[in-house]
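Posting for a labmate who doesn't have an account.
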Amino acid sequence: MENIVYIGTAFALIFIIEGLLYALFPNQMRRMMAQILLLHTHQLKIMGISMVIMGVSLVYLVNLLT
């Protein structure tokens, strides 16, 4: 049950951070989305895989510190 709370909290933080970006920088977010549409699928896949690796690494490091 504790893991579900952590997962729910993680998703909530994602929504909070993304919502803040759209609220504080709407024009920049619109431009970023337009630029993303110009990228090739392969580039998006590489960016996604890189972000997953960085996220997993960060979770691992945080767990080492606690």
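Reply:
Got it, the structure tokens are right above this. The chain has a mean pLDDT of 94.
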